[in-house]
Amino acid sequence: MTDSLTFSALKEKQRAIRAGFPETMGLRVHRSISWIGRAEACGDDHDARFIFLWIAFNAVYADEREFQWVAPGERAAIVDYFGKLLARAEERRVYKALWQRFSGPVRMLMENRFVFNPFWQHQNGIDGFEDWEERFRTSSRSFAQAFQAGDSVRVLSFVFDRLYVLRNQLVHGGSTWNSGVNRAQVRDGAAILGFLLPVFVDLMMDNPKEDWGRPFYPVVE
Questions:
Q1: So where are the chain's domains?
Q2: Are 135 and 158 within 8 A, CB to CB?
Q3: What is the largest CA-CA distance in the chain?
Q4: How far, in Å, CA of 2 to CA of 81, rounded?
Q5: pLDDT, tens digit, for every residue of 120-155?
Q6: Cα-based torsion angle of the residue sequence 42, 46, 47, 52 in order, rounded to the nearest 10 degrees
Q7: Taking the model in full, what pTM does it have?
Q8: Residue 16: enclosing H or E segment and its boundaries?
Q9: DSSP 8-class letter at 214
Q10: Residues with Cβ within 8 Å of residue 143, at least 6 apart in sequence
Q11: DSSP of 88-103, one letter per residue?
């Protein structure tokens, strides 16, 4: 069960098998688990929990392409990571984790316009986004179809498109800490990252020989 994948469980597994990890993959997992542990200590501070879990997510997927002068975009790196992660035979674990929570935070997040980027484009007066409501309905239908088809990569892409808007709101100062406004998406976003990140890390530990990419900030003596 995904609920058993706590910081302690992940750390215990990592210590038991880390001798067989390639250096770069081992560093990613070590860093991500440390931030998952920090997120667990946040209690009901959903803002902090979300931010710490996003750092844990960055630790497992971000690579040197994001730090080049002309980067291909963070979304491309995220989708590449999902492709590698879900190419494994255990990919159904991710789908099951989403399905178990579908009626809760996943569905609520996907129905929340405040984490839909075209909504904010329209609110800020940018031309071409007057039809944001139709785009929102289309996105919801496409997400439902991907879920029904069991297309885990597309499902995760939809979910993380929403989570990325939330990430930007928090990290770029577009939100007040512990605000009484728009609490739902912060709570739901933290819940989604909280049950997905441990599964991601566990899958990586089960497949250490996969090329998970080189972290741009290695340990330098």
A1: 2-206
A2: no
A3: 55
A4: 20
A5: 999 999 999 999 999 999 999 999 999 889 888 889
A6: 50
A7: 0.89
A8: helix 7-17
A9: -
A10: 110, 155, 158
A11: SGGGHHHHHHHHHTII
